[in-house]
Design goal:
heterotrimer, A mainly alpha (559), B alpha/beta (290), C mainly alpha (320), A: mainly alpha, 4 domains, B: 290 residues, 6-stranded mixed beta sheet
Chain lengths: 559, 290, 320
């Protein structure tokens, strides 16, 4: 008997524990989902921005104190000079292809120089031949890996330095090159040149990720490549890439590969490049001037390709537009329907059909709304109206009629409006029903008509409830993606000029930035930033709704 | 405006002070008034009036005259149709689906169940006070001003004077004059009910229907409402439904007894309570049933 | 106006009858107003009819075409193949079934326990805190859940569970379960609360522990509402698009062995969302997507009618 009581008690405790656990689990899930989203997302707005960031903002979006940025940029360029010079020196030793190209170019220039100066015939051929010898000797020197050969060749070139034929011509550059290469050869291990060349490319890439294009270099075509590391965290990341060589090495056959790190400094030991690693690491602050940035313009700015730079202004604008127009359509419809259902009818067959339809509408999957929106609004109704308006009535321009045949904001808004209509109807109906009957009686007894009673007494009393429902459906409309996929949302594109053009939206943008967009993978803070904006928008609306509801319930109790 | 009616106000004030606390109405007084009114005929007359909810009858064959400027009390056990009858007078029963009436119920000679009845005018002139105080969730001022505004009075000073006058009539002015913009829901139950009476007065009704106005109130609040009824009765025709026989005896000149939807007895209050002609009535007022 | 008051008080000076003109006007306005309100309300009905009509219209060519038999019997979905396009929807339906069932397996026990906790165990204050939490969970947009599935859950699964792909049945099922939880909890809690104190008191009075009272008495008494809660949660899971599109991997296959949840599947909603961008309007592929839309529509419509039936029973039970 005692055991039986014990086991029953134990089962009861387990039951309670499980139910508490399920709730705790739910709260944990909420924190786990929202936490990282908000934390990473905030990084899009709060971060340490480098001067590169400020330059980019100034150049791309036109915000910022140009005077200060230029001044700081000057100081930074000065600090970077050391790196650039070392790189330049090293390149001259390594990048012999580059040198050979130069030599060839100079030879060609020399030819045209001679022609321009009226040299022709025999003399032309002679000079050309001599220059050609120089060219070939130099090229041999650049391509050779044997120190002796190189020095011999360079020497033979330099012997002709004082030759009057070449003085004052472009050929003089040959001698300069020969001279500097003589220095290079002394410090660089030529046999490692191939290896260096590859590693040097990586260094240069890392440097351009850090510092952006070198001063004087042609500006790259893509905005992404025009600026270095704009954020301190990116600086750190790219610095690691600069300082360390990472390789996946197979230690034993069949075993997973192991990540192997070696310092570049050691790799480039005893070369011109060696000091830049320590220099960069030690002077990181001077090289970038990071400052804590509150990038509030994130919520306003347009973005560059793949959301690499910039903000999500157009997405927010699009979401607001979609939500606004869908509400414009569904709020009046919803409240009037609710009023009809509560005030004007009893429970007859027509009302039951209407109710079933509203419930059905609420249960239709959102993607089916998307299909319907496309089939009905985009492909059927709007083109028909457009044609009618253009050809028969002449009130639409040809362009409007054409826009009407494509996905656009209006079609997406109508689709979203239909989606939230049942939500608004139900919330409003509940709110109107919750108004005490005595209110209605009081108003009628004071001689108000049915319409007056509804407008002056019932609607104001139901307003908080209706408002709550509206805000909740607002947040639903703002967060839905599937219905606007085919009816008016795009991933890229200009900010729309009218509601007859498609728009970007936060919800679709969040999808695209998470899966569709390769470039965005490089900037996780932008991915999270977009979805944080969406979630923050939706949750703010919800919290407002919860607040209004609790306040109005207090108010009804007369507090 | 207030000047011009100070006379009347003081008169009514004097009346009120003449009746310091609700007492049984003196017999001779009632007699004279009754005869007067009887000669004029009832202002509200019901003849064989029946009201059905679907198939069940709410009230059956009510024939009674309610006289002007007099308090008529309707008493009876729960569910006897007294409220139903009261609500029929200004057609508040219309809110209930599937109702049907027979017989006639006239107000000022007009059958109120005529299809062409102007419900707005009817309800404005036959005001109603409900069982539970039901002020709107608006300010005290807006509650009172609701009726006048419906009648198209939007002039601020005119509204102000109406509000003050009605609150004065309802003995509420002194308690709330400093916070007229406060929510009416913040008032106490008794204050709310007086506010509802004031609100009903503001539409300038000719008759006032009171559906158990004190049932949700404590004795002190009840006393104030009764005081108020005594003050109002010489200006309004008042019909009050009540559970409370003492209250009926205290405030009314005539009393009707309803049972199971039928009018059992209707007489002058003094005679009704001292010398009922019907056995059922006697059982009821002596507490043998109900 | 005011001064005319006391002496004439009892006289009715405003006409109790409407003038004929006013009467007619009132009548017309009343009828017109009602007609207007009715028409506006009828928009919902029209919308439902239009949805059914247009989805069926766009799908009609396919349903009358040569691929119908294959549609319902084959499991291979290769709509864009040039030589032999195949339109077998079974694998896709299986995908929906997989993620939905998994989601319900997780969400129903959790949701019921949480509902029990909310209705019977939690103190008022804690409940005031938890209810908004549930609402917020319900309010998070589905695309945000999908984002979480792709960027947080999938990498985690790959590194910690060693799955080949992070976007799989398990991932989609878990996220869908989280999304279905709020619906299940709130509907189930409503129905448990509707059971009423008397029945609980009776059970406790006979010496039941709380677990026994809940499991043997209260939950059986509220079973209609709980079934409705499960159906509504199921509708949410079946109809959800973004999460499954992002988290399920989009491979139209039936996992084999069938219990391997680490494999990718493809659901009906995700197929529509993913393929529609690549189709030509009016092509067989386009029409086949609308046919999937019909399947979804019919399925949710049926579930909806069922849930309404059960909810109506809850409401009736409450009234009695």
């Amino acid at each position: 008997m005692g055991f039986r009581i014990f086991s029953r008690d134990f089962a009861d405790r387990c039951f309670t524990a499980f139910s508490i656990m399920s709730v705790v689990l739910m709260v944990c899930v909420l924190v786990m989902v929202l936490g990282p989203m908000m934390l990473h997302g905030l990084k899009a707005v709060f971060f340490f921005g480098t001067n590169e960031f400020r330059e980019m903002q100034l150049a791309v979006f036109g915000h910022g104190d140009s005077e200060r940025i230029r001044r700081e940029n000057g100081e930074i360029e000065e600090a970077r000079l050391f790196v650039y010079e070392a790189v330049g020196r090293f390149r001259r030793g390594i990048d012999t292809d580059h040198l050979s190209d130069d030599v060839r170019d100079i030879y060609r220039d020399y030819g045209s120089y001679l022609r321009d100066n009226g040299v022709s015939g025999e003399r032309y051929s002679t000079l050309r031949a001599r220059a050609k010898v120089l060219r070939d000797t130099l090229q041999d020197a650049f391509e050779s890996r044997d120190k002796g050969t190189v020095q011999r060749n360079l020497q033979s070139v330099l012997e002709l330095r004082d030759d009057p034929d070449f003085r004052g011509t472009v050929i003089e550059a040959y001698f300069e090159k020969a001279e500097s290469y003589t220095h290079v050869v002394e410090s660089v291990d030529l046999s490692k040149r191939e290896q260096y060349a590859k590693a040097f490319d990586e260094v240069q890439e890392a440097l351009s990720k850090l510092f952006g294009p070198r001063p004087g270099e042609l500006l790259p075509a893509l905005t992404i490549d025009q600026y270095g590391a704009t954020r301190w965290d990116v600086v750190q990341r790219e610095l690691q890439k600069l300082l360390w060589i990472e390789e996946w090495v197979e230690t034993e056959p069949g075993q997973p590969m192991v990540k192997h790190r070696t310092a570049r400094k050691e790799f480039f030991a005893n070369t011109d490049l060696e000091p830049i690693f320590d220099y960069t690491e030690k002077n990181l602050y001077r090289l970038f001037r990071p400052r804590l940035t509150f990038y509030w313009r994130y919520f306003l700015d347009e973005s560059t390709d793949g959301h690499y730079f910039g903000g999500c202004g157009p997405e927010i604008l699009g979401t607001l537009a979609l939500t606004f127009f869908s509400m414009l359509f569904s709020i009046p419809l919803g409240i009037i329907s609710a009023a009809f259902l509560v005030e004007c009818t009893s429970d007859n067959i027509v009302v039951r059909v209407i109710r079933t339809c509203i419930n059905t509408l609420a249960g239709v999957p959102s993607i089916v709304f998307g299909l319907f929106g496309m089939a009905f609004f985009v492909l059927f109704l709007f083109p028909m109206l457009g044609e009618f308006g253009h050809e028969t009535l002449g009130i639409f321009s040809a362009e409007t009629a054409k826009n009407l045949t494509k996905p656009n904001i209006l079609a997406a808004s109508f689709t979203l409006g239909l989606l939230v209509l049942p939500v608004i109807i139900r919330a409003s109906e509940e709110a109107i029903r919750a108004v005490p009957r005595t209110y209605k009686e009081a108003a009628l007894a004071l001689g108000a008509g049915q319409f007056r009673t509804f407008m002056t007494v019932i609607l104001p009393a139901a307003a908080p409830g209706i408002f709550t429902g509206i805000i909740l459906s607002l947040s639903r409309a703002a967060g839905e993606t599937a219905p606007i996929l085919f009816t008016g949302a795009i991933a890229f594109g200009p900010v729309p000029d009218s509601i007859l053009e498609p728009t970007r939206a936060l919800s679709y943008g969040s999808y695209d930035i998470a899966v569709g967009d390769r470039l965005a993978m490089l900037v996780p803070h932008k991915q999270y930033g977009m979805v944080m904006t969406l979630v923050a928008l939706v949750l703010t609306l919800n919290i407002i709704a919860i607040w209004i509801r609790s306040r109005s319930s207090r108010k009804l109790r007369g507090i | 405006m207030i000047q011009s009616q100070s006379n009347e106000l003081s008169l009514s004030g004097a009346d009120a002070s003449l009746i310091p606390k609700p007492t049984y109405v003196q017999a001779d007084d009632t007699d004279t008034m009754t005869t007067e009114s009887s000669e004029a005929g009832g202002i509200i007359r019901s003849k064989d009036f029946c009201l059905f909810y679907g198939r069940t009858a709410g009230v059956k064959n009510i024939t009674m005259d309610i006289y002007a400027r007099m308090v008529t009390a309707i008493i009876g056990p729960s569910g006897c149709g007294k409220s139903t009858f009261l609500r029929s007078i200004n057609r508040m029963n219309d809110l209930i689906p599937n109702i049907r009436t027979e017989g006639s119920l006239t107000v000022n000679g007009q059958d109120v169940y005529d299809r062409r009845v102007n419900l707005v005018n009817l309800r404005q002139q036959v005001g109603m006070v409900f069982q539970k105080p039901n002020p709107f969730a608006k300010s005290i001022y807006d509650n009172i001003a609701y009726g006048p505004r419906l009648q198209g009075i939007h002039n601020r000073s005119e509204l102000n004077s109406i509000v003050e006058e009605c609150l004065n009539d309802a003995f509420l002015w002194d308690e709330v004059k400093d916070d007229l913009q406060k929510s009416a829901l913040a008032l106490s139950g008794g204050q709310q009910q007086r506010l509802c009476i004031a609100r009903a007065l503001a539409t300038r009704p000719r008759a006032l229907l009171m559906d158990e106005p004190c049932s949700a109130l404590d004795p002190i609040a009840t006393a104030r409402i009764e005081e108020l009824i005594a003050k109002l009765k010489d200006r309004y025709t008042i019909v009050i439904v009540t559970h409370n026989m003492q209250q009926a005896a205290r405030v009314s000149e005539r009393t009707a007894f309803f049972c199971l939807g039928e009018l059992i007895e209707y007489d002058q209050t003094s005679r009704f309570f001292t010398n009922p002609s019907n056995k059922q009535t006697e059982d009821y007022i002596t507490g043998r049933f109900g | 106006m005011q001064s005319s008051r006391p002496a004439e008080a009892a006289r009715f000076d405003r006409p109790l009858l409407l003038s004929p003109g006013k009467d007619l006007r009132g009548y017309i306005f009343n009828k017109l107003g009602r007609a207007f309100l009715f028409l506006v309300t009828f928009v919902s009905v029209v919308a439902v009819l239009l949805i059914f009509y247009f989805i069926i219209r766009e799908a009609a060519g396919f349903l009358a075409g040569p691929y119908v038999k294959q549609f319902f019997t084959s499991a291979s979905w290769y709509p864009e193949s040039h030589e032999h396009p195949e339109f077998g929807v079974l694998a896709i339906v299986a995908g929906t079934v997989y993620v939905t069932v998994l989601a319900l397996l997780i969400a129903v026990p959790l949701g019921l326990l949480a509902a029990v906790w909310l209705s019977d165990i939690a103190t008022f204050k804690v409940r005031q805190f938890i209810k908004p939490v549930i609402e917020i969970l319900a309010a998070i947009p589905s695309v945000a859940f999908g984002f979480f599935a792709v960027l947080v859950m999938a990498p985690w699964m790959q590194t910690h569970l060693g799955y080949d792909t992070g976007t799989n049945v398990l991932n989609a099922g878990i996220i869908l379960a989280v999304m279905a939880l709020p619906t299940i909890i709130s509907v189930a809690e409503d129905s448990l609360s509707a059971v009423g104190m008397e029945i609980r008191e009776a059970a406790y009075g006979l010496g039941s522990t709380r677990a026994e009272a809940m499991i043997r008495v209260v939950i059986p008494a509220g079973h209609s509402g709980i079934i409705a809660a499960i159906i509504l949660g199921m509708m949410r899971a079946v109809g959800e698009t973004m999460v499954v599109w992002m988290a399920s991997g989009n491979a139209s296959q039936i996992p084999s062995p069938w219990w391997d949840l680490s494999q990718s599947v493809r659901t009906m909603t995700a197929t529509i969302a993913g393929d529609m961008g690549e189709t030509v309007q009016g092509s067989v592929h386009y029409q086949s997507l609308f046919s999937i839309g019909i399947l979804l529509l019919v399925f949710t419509f049926g579930l909806n009618l069922m849930s309404e039936h059960f909810l109506a029973r809850v409401r009736k039970g409450k009234g009695a």
